[in-house]
Amino acid sequence: MIIVISIAALLGFRQVLPSKIFTETGITKNVVVDSLMLEAVEADGGETEKDTLSSNKKIVFEAVNGIKFPAETFEDYKGYQHLVNFYEKLLQLETKKQGKVRIAYFGDSMTDGDLIVKDFRASLQERFGGEGVGFVNITSESAPSRSTLTHQFSPNWKTQSYLNVKSPRSPFGVNGHVFFTKRDTVNPAWVRYKASNIRHLTELYNPTLFYGKSGNRKAAVDVIIGKDTIRKNLNPVNLVNTLSVANGGIKGFKANFIASDSIPFYGFNFDDGRGVHVDNFSNRGNSGLPIGSFNTNVMRAFNDKLGYDLIVLHYGTNVLNYGSLNYTWYEKRMARVVEHLRECFPGVDILIISTADKSTKYGLEMKTDSAVVPLSRAQKKYAVQTESAYVNLYTLMGGDGSMVKWVDEEAPALANKDYTHFNFRGAKKVSDLIWNQINGGYEQYKRLRGFKTPTPPAPAPQTGTPVTEQPKAEQPKTPTVQPAKKPIVKKDTITPKKDTTHAP
């Protein structure tokens, strides 16, 4: 009886008590963790190590291809020096329209549904060229919430992920998954893709199926484009095989998989073969550690066909969950992950993006979680140790208390009420913050290469009056300008699309 009365009283008083007494849990079900992280916490969670990286100690770089960036302190470390090869590829695209650039962007729920990555991709393609959304899985839990293409699939697929499977039937693909059709002679497994109306993504460019090795020699794929159906036989003789679905750009297609239940499938790639392409390999609950389970030979086979120039590791959300302020175990294990990636993708540059700010309730007040700064420092340490570039997303957001501002003070809000995940507006801003830092390093690289950066034009007057160039002596007296009216903040009229993927 006491328990019943207490619950009733709590529900009744909730209407009048401050809202922050009650934790928002609507989206925190996104925050799960992979099995390798759980094992790492249990094995090494209590390990400590003396911090040998002084905030004021100079980090001096070695020249790469004759280019040497100025020394940096640990506190301000960005590591542009370790993006020289990537920057040179961009320069060849910008100045000679030669070559192409490919980026693998690995992340967790922060990049779910192509958030952040779609805007990062758009910034690069707008400047350097390139058409297409890149590599897309066979199935995806975030498909309903992805806006960069329409992705549908039948229920008779079996999925194995490196987040929870140690010994898959066949090696994982570059996306950390491997997919198998379930035997069904009546209703074959299928996938369907349709291009969006977003700039640079208005067609599915050169759709190509990626699949693995098998003894099956009878499998085929029926490709349906409009009213036409074309049967294409599969030939799974190599570690990684490809099948071209169409040449050029198409609006959409459906693929039926025939007698193919023993063949490992990975996904489809969509790109026009020019400019920049960015593949989003997001997995909810990923700490980054499962990447260390990649099969080196299979990854090199993927790299032979796709050719990666930059790998982005954007993690941290799931590593914050356990309340520990000691991340030595994570720093050491992620350093090994980076070295393994260099074995899998020889010559690739690596960019580490730190955890974003996350708020936790302390008493009645939402504040930056006490684990954010120690984790971001550990991420910077393994970036320095592995000679990788680094973006401190926590400081770019505004540092301490920034997530609370993004949720409660920005109008409209930039993040969700779980004080962890960004909405579409916030994801765009985060992408811009990352792109601006990377582009700043690129402009510095061009200056070191002897390219003069054009002086940007002076900003137009805020009054909107056209500027006319005249000799100084002939300039009329500056008229009195009335102060600009404070802009009216209109109520957000965007109707959010119902998300059938995230748990309510």
From TrEMBL:
The organism's place on the tree of life at top rank: Bacteria
UniProt biased composition (Basic and acidic residues): 489-504
Region described as Disordered: spans on this chain: 449-504
Gene Ontology terms, MF aspect: hydrolase activity, acting on ester bonds
Name of the protein described by the UniProt record: SGNH hydrolase-type esterase domain-containing protein
